[in-house]
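Shift notes (night). Ran Inosine/uridine-preferring nucleoside hydrolase domain-containing protein while the centrifuge was going.
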Amino acid sequence: MDTDDLFALLYVLKQNRSEFDVKAITINANQWTDAGHAVNHLYDLLHMMGRDDIPVGVGGDGGISDSGDIGPDVGGYLPLIDQGMSSTAGGCRYRQAIPPGRSGRLDVDTNSGLRRAFLPQGPRRYRPLRQPTAQQVMADAVSAGPTTVFLFGAHTNLALLLMAHPRLKRNIERVYISGGAVRTADPAGNLFTAFATNPFAEFNIFGDPFAAYQVIHSGIPITMIPLDATNTIPVTEEFISEFRQRQLTYEAQYCFLSLDQVLMRLRGRSNGHGSTTSYYMWDSFAAGVALSSMRNGEIDGGNDFAELEYMNITVVTSNKPYGERDGSNPFFDGRASPRFGLKEGGVHSGHVQTGIRDSFCLIPGSNRGRCEDGYTREVSGPEGVRVRVATRAKPNTNKNSSLDREFFKSFLEVLNRPEQTGLFSIKTQFPYYREVLYKPVFGNGSKGKPVIFDMDMSPGDYVSLIYLLKAPREAIDLKGVFVNGNGWANIASIDIVYDILHMMGRDDIPVGLGNTTALGTPTLGCNNSYAIPHGSGGFIDSDTLYGLARSLPRSPRRYAPESTDHPESRQPLAFEVWQSVRKQLDPGEQITVLTNGPLTNLANISLSDRDASSVIERVYVVGVLIKDGGDENGDVFTVPSTKHAEFNMFLDPLAAKTVLESDLKITLIPLTVQRKATFEDVLAALEDIPHTRESKFVNELLSLLQDLQRRRKLYHHLVTIIHISSFFSL
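Came back to this:
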């Protein structure tokens, strides 16, 4: 669901349905987007296009046994090599090559803020335990009859389907793959964050090399549109100029605005020089090549947009020497027999890249690594598979056109067709909707303690936020909110915080964007957040507020990336909000900080502002496990070896150490206290108070959490982390 995926999908949806009919869409959940944000984005996009009939599959909570037996509904949150049986929690071996914050998943999840600003809101949304899984949707579509598959991301979902249901191969006529790099100029790949360890791979294949190997070696006919071809169709200034003049449909407008945001960031990096933009028509071009081949005939027909030829291809999944077990390869290491029946000493038995800083892959004195995981290598002999490969984009047949590629002409023509056009945007769906900021007028009355709330956007945090907003201003004056990006929700969930504040009429409160990784760790990685499940009871639920985020009013405020044209609209950082709040303090006034998550933001502030402790009256920390001689255990349920850890401390131990060893005055609210408040107690308390919109929302959220906790083991870890007395003022 990256920007180029949107272009490709809209280009395909605009085709004549009697010729090409999209039957299902599944979301790859282990690369450039996060499942909860992606599925709701896709639902809204399909609603705009009048295609609420298309089933969408994402995730699933099944697992793969040690012997390689694939359970039902494996979610594809992890690459096949790291998928276990018991949980969707896991590391980011390959995904760490993708930045989790700005210019990475944050911008993709929000589409640079455009998703909520432009798209209508459809009737479909993610719902816990009711969302169709990727495997269900894909199996249903392929089982219905002859099917063509477009793969525009990592290959995990399709590989799982083929391995679990090999009989379905006969229904797949051909697979079109956007990705790979075969004969491209040195370096071959596009892993811009990982050239020092792997200069050969392309992102879509690198996302799950073993899955790509399974697909390409499945025996199904394959057409690949690799970097070899997409590198020959860069977005030019002439194309942008033409596109700017041709936005006759909602889908064309959305694509242009999305492209403009991407190019704005790229221009900022390159200072605006050059006639091309360093952005390419990756997936949309692949879609055009695929549709042209299907229309003209794959075997004997030509292609309108690309030159193609046959090559013998394989996918590198491990590095030589083969057969040496060095702890990097879970398919072989620590096993009496290899997983999936793989061959000892075979091509899958070598060193598997463990991350973008893998020392095995580094070459001393060179900025080019030696690992080839995910490389689509051209080979001879039995290891190669005959694949039809696009090698170059065709020039425009109209020599007088400013558009230098034939596909550019088709792309703009198709998007602007009146047929199969989008129905509305958010503004035309709700013509009386206005983006109004609500800011209270408090007058000259007395103000309470200045408070900053630091949250990681788990469901209990939103209940805490509403409670703080309901407290009398004479007692609590909420000055700012920090959001933490290395806790229980991905950082793009900051938009839910804006919606809560909007519902409460507090659009005046600034929200600061925190770090996406733990203190003292690389910005690319997942560190201790590997312990949080990606599926049910984890990120997909937190990022959608268990399906309830869509019931909140849509705030005019939303995440916005850095912009050279509108720097004032940029999303502020947590430290910037801290500085702003500090400047507003009256002489002698001090701030109270409440933390409901990892202590990363507070630790960064204390290290960056050495005088911070002088203006912090007290810090209240929700977290820690204090052993008092009893048998109380921690709550990091996905890491059995960490028996005594509590999640907020576990997710950033160095930040916790920094804060707890500082001279700040700290009050701890440990697990033993949190566990005294049960769902039953809190829900009973809510029944005895006057009902408001916010109390109804909290009641709905907690009732849902209680129901999920009772029904499914996946949700047994849910606890209310707010003391019961917090609810009496709602």
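Residues 250-270 form the longest helix (21 residues). The chain has a mean pLDDT of 92.
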